């Protein structure tokens, strides 16, 4: 059996299409949000016009969900802090970074009326010092963007390495390994990475269907795991990370 979990970052417009798929396959998920980057109204996703020089993913501008629709769109899913405006550890001064992590959490807890003890490191950047500080502030885990074959074991809960990105070439093999060892299979990504490409959306749907159809895959929310307790355990098999 594998405990399967997933999370998606940045609160972008493609999350709406993603959530339809998640509901279709009864999949649990956490969305890591930056409340300070949402306008009141939705900013639609679009392909950059000639001359556009701002941020994009391969020319696709992800857009942002409107602040007023956050609760409706993410209803039934978990949300977690991804800093107020995507502040990055090691770039923002430490005190500002910690404040940004806490401010996002408080905003989400007020808005969704539920505890939001999770965290995802913007850009995957972290430091041990900030991990300790966030743990002291009551965060229970902090997801990085590095890969682990033994999610949560033997590592600081605030430096939690997931299994892999959702488009990792070894997605299925990593899942099978986690299942063999009765461990966690945890993938992450940004829904904008699928652009408006039907091929990429179909590929994700096949993964969700595969997990849905496997009776040994059991979906968990991240806050259903005692990460501190798990961090005390050592992996049974010492295998190298990829
Ligand atoms: Zn992000």
Chart the SSEs and their pairings.
Blueprint: E1 2-9, H1 14-24, E2 30-33, E3 46-47, E4 60-61, H2 70-73, E5 78-81, H3 94-112, E6 118-120, H4 128-136, E7 141-143, E8 164-165, H5 171-180, E9 184-189, H6 198-213, E10 217-219, H7 227-231
Parallel strand pairs: 1-2, 1-9, 1-10, 2-5, 6-7, 8-9
Antiparallel strand pairs: 3-4
This protein binds zinc ion.
Mean pLDDT: 96
Q: What is the architecture at the second tier of CATH? A: Alpha-Beta Barrel
Beta-strand percentage range: 15-25%
Secondary-structure-derived class: alpha/beta
Q: What hetero molecules are in the model?
A: zinc ion
Task: Provide tags for this entry.
10 strands, globular, binds zinc ion, alpha/beta, 7 helices, 31% helix, 242 residues, two-stranded antiparallel sheet, TIM Barrel, single chain, six-stranded parallel sheet
Describe the structure.
The protein has 242 residues and is of the alpha/beta class. Helix content is 31%, strand content 15%. It has helices at residues 14-24, 70-73, 94-112, 128-136, 171-180, 198-213, 227-231; strands at 2-9, 30-33, 46-47, 60-61, 78-81, 118-120, 141-143, 164-165, 184-189, 217-219. The strands form three sheets. Strands 1, 2, 5, 8, 9 and 10 form a six-stranded parallel β-sheet that branches. A two-stranded antiparallel sheet has the order 3-4. The radius of gyration is 17 Å and the shape is globular. The chain starts with a strand and ends in an 11-residue tail after the last helix. 39% of the residues are buried. It binds zinc ion. Residues 9-10, 82, 86, 122 line the site of zinc ion.
């Amino acid at each position: 059996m594998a405990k399967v979990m997933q999370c998606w970052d940045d609160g972008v417009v493609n999350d709406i299409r993603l959530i339809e798929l998640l509901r279709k396959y009864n999949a649990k998920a956490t969305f890591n949000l930056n409340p300070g980057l949402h306008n009141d109204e939705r900013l639609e996703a679009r392909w950059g016009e000639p001359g556009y020089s701002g941020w994009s993913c391969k020319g696709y501008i992800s857009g942002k969900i409107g602040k007023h629709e956050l609760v409706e769109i993410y209803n039934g899913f978990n949300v977690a802090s991804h800093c107020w405006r995507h502040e990055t550890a090691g770039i923002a001064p430490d005190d500002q970074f910690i404040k940004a992590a806490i401010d996002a959490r408080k905003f989400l807890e007020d808005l969704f009326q539920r505890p939001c003890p999770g965290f995802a490191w913007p850009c995957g950047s972290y430091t041990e010092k900030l991990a300790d500080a966030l743990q002291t502030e009551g965060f229970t885990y902090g997801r990085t963007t590095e890969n682990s074959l033994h999610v949560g074991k033997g590592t600081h809960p605030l430096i939690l390495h997931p299994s892999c990105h959702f488009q990792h070439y070894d997605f299925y093999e990593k899942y099978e390994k986690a299942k063999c060892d009765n461990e966690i299979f945890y993938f992450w990504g940004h829904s904008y990475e699928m652009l408006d490409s039907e091929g990429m959306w179909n590929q994700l749907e096949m993964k969700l269907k595969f997990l849905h159809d496997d009776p040994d895959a059991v979906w968990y929310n991240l806050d259903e795991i005692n990460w501190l307790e798990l961090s005390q355990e050592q992996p049974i098999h010492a295998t190298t990370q990829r």
